[in-house]
Amino acid sequence: MDFNDLRRTDMMCKALEQSSGKFVMIDHHQDPSDFADMVFSEPNISSTAQLIFDFIENMAWKDLLNTDIAKCIYTGMVTDTGSFRFSSVECKNT
Question: Any idea where the domains of the chain sit in the sequence?
């Protein structure tokens, strides 16, 4: 999550490229590389945490949210948006 290119792993990149494991990318950054088997990439979304919340909402799992999960999602949104300062932050009415 919040990770769009194996090269960002620096010294682990080669080992990851040789791995037989499946990769899932959940990310909001532009220009994701083609390393993942499953990709959930939305560059127009302000944060990966927003993607996670949208996923939970679309799966009709909002009733499973609790305070701990909400704190994690909020922390992800705050850190990924520069405390909601970046231009990619968009308010949506839900």
Answer: 6-41, 44-94
